[in-house]
Structures are given as C-alpha cells and as structure tokens.
Amino acid sequence: MTLAPEAPEAPQAPPRTTRPGPARTADGAGERRRKLTPLRAIDVYAALGAAAASLALTWVMFGRLLPFDGAVGFVVTAYLLFLAVYALLVSFDEDGPAIVDRIAAAVVRSLGLLLVVILVFVVSYALVEGREALVHLNFFTEDMQLAGPLEPLEVGGALHAAAGTLIMITIALVVTVPVGLVCAVFLNEVPGAFSRFVRTIVEAMTALPSIVAGLFVYATVILGLGLDLSGFAASLALSVMMLPIVIRAADVVIRLVPGTLREASYALGTSRWRTVWHVVLPTCRSGLTTSVILGTARGIGETSPVLLTAGFTSELNLDPLHGPMVSLPLATFQFVKSPEPTMVARGFGTAALLMALVLLLFVAARIVGGRGAGQLTRRQEHRRVLASRRDAKRFAAREGTRDGAGAVVGTDASRPAPGLTHSTDPHNHGSSS
After folding, report:
1. Which of 56, 182, 385, 409 holds its CA 20 to 30 A away from the CA of 403?
2. Closest CA to 168 of 216, 117, 230, 217
3. Global pTM value
4. 222: CB partners within 8 A, 6+ apart
5. Longest C-alpha distance within the chain, in Å?
C-alpha cells in the first residue's frame, strides 16, 4: 500500500512584538507622533507669551498701581512673574512633573544667560572706559617713569605692570605646577592616614585669605631670610595662593580616571609610577590643564600679596630678585584711585590688558593640554607610521636571514612574516604580528 506524500505545511510567520495602545493604520493616524527634540514650538510660544505678559504686568504695577521704583526691583518682579505665568501656560498641556521640569529648565537657562550677560558687560565696560588709553601705542611700550598724573595719554603706559605680571606668574607656575601635580598624585596613589591629613590641610587652605599668604611670605622670606621686596617674593606669595587650588582640582580629576586602566597596566607587569606616568596622567591631561588654569586665574588677579612682598614702582624692572615690581591688578588699583581722568583711563586700559593676558594664557593652555587621551598630533601620527614601516622591514629581513640559514623551510623571503599587516593608511598607527 502506497501512501501519498503529505502536502508541506505553509511556513508560519515569526511572532512579532506588539505594543499597547491604538493600532497603527496605513496613514499613521492611529497614534500621535512624539518629537524627541527637547525644544518644541509650544515651549517657545509659552516662553515668549510669559515674557510679554510679565513685562506688561510689571509695568502696570510699577507705573500705575503701586509706588514702586528702581531697575533692580523691576527686573526681579518681572522675572518672578515670568516664572508664574510660564508655569500657568505649561499646565494647560502638561502634568505636574513636566511643569516642574519646564520651570527648572527655565531657571537654569536664565541663570546661564545672566552670567553671560554679566561677563559681556564687565568686558565691554572695561574696553569702553579704557578705549582712550588703548588706542595709543605708547601704552604698550612705555612705563610710567616719566608720566605724572597730569600728563596726557600720549606719555606713559603699562609695560612695567605687564612685564611684572608675566615674570611673577611664570615663577609661580614653575613652583606650583610640579608640586601641585605630584601632591595630587600622592593623594590618589598612596592612600593612608598621612594622605588624608594632607587632603584636609589642602581643603582648608583653599579658602585662605590672600592677605594671610602675603603676610606669611613677608614674615618668613623678607623679615626672616632678609630678602628684599622683589618679584620673587611676590611669586612665592602667589604660589601659596595657587597651590591648594591646583592640588584640589587635580585631585578630583585624577580620581575620575577609571580603575580598569590601572588594573590593565598592572596586569602587564608595569610598576605603579610608570602606570601613573604613562596611563593616569595622559588620560586626565585635559582636566589637569583646567586645574592649572584655575590656579593661574586665582593668582594672576591678586593685589594685596604683591603689594606686601613686591612693593610698588613706576619703572620697568625685569630682575625678579632685586628691586620692587608691580603687577597689572596693582597698577589698575593705583591708576583708578586717582581723581585725574587720564589716570582713570589708564586704569581701565590696564584692566583690559589684564583680561587679554588671561585669555592668551587660557588659549595657550588649552592648545597644550586640550587633546584627549590617546589623541595624537599629525607629527606624532607620521612618526608612528614611519616606525611601523621600519618594524615591517626589520621583521621581513629577519625572516629572510632565517630562511637562508635553513632554520625555516618553505617561507618566501620576499614576503612579510605571517600575520604582519603593512598599510600606508595614515590611520593605521602600527603593525601587528
């Protein structure tokens, strides 16, 4: 008896995951599309409407209803009314958590905008008030040795203050950067009771008043060791101010380095200090640069330690070990307190020069340490490619020598070793075998 073959069953479609909610139709009308962008048109309209309503209500309150006056009160009242009206408008479309989120976002953005406005106002005000002095070339090439309070702006300048600031901050950085980074590494890599004590002292010194640092250097270096009032003594005072800032910021940055990187280095048999030098510090190089910038910004704007330890002079002094020396903040203070308009203009010009110097140092620091971990420059990539090619030729020559001596049979001497990759692609940074 012969049985007819059974007809093959139709293939079944694989199971699919369905989500709850209204079914999707062909034209997409069954569901409402949600945009993933954080900024929506309805949010913009609500913010603009709340701003217009708050300004109108504040004007009515200050100008018609209540005896209020003053620009600060007007701005504060308008801002509070803006938040209230914005919350009311958002509540028409959103629930409680969304309202709180929108209000928090509005507060954060407004505070960020306020900080930017304040910064722009400070910089613009210094430039506008000092424009009369900044347009003269002698302001950048002369000191105040031959310029009195009644002299016009065509005589005298701030060269002595700029040179003094650069000399002082350079010596302070030479002292602070290695000591601060070594101390930060010690706090992270050598834990113990002593490191906890050092961290406590560093945190306490972070809030040290600048006048205390100046008095400390004045009592120990000038009165105790007999050193004259000089730029070197002022640099030591600035180092005392900058050191806790650099240590604290570098300590936080080094602590953020993943522990797996250290473990991988130790697994390869590397010592602790080679791990720190080749793994930890390159990984957090950008953060360490930021810590140095923070310390520099703290020290470059100090006035009282410089006045106590370096004195004041109107002449250009390039010797940091002998003679008084002046800095840009101290010169700004001396110029601005004068009742003469020309001296006040010189003071604001000196302040603008100080801001330009800080910006220049910041850009230079970001260029030096702004690259990420493992990111190479074009010159370093080129040297890596050349080293890879030399390694490939050396390995191929070694295989050819072994073939000629009969140590290895059946290997073509003109062919690189098995597994050796040789590429002229600049993105190929090495060879593997």
Report:
1. 385
2. 230
3. 0.69
4. 228, 229, 233, 309
5. 130
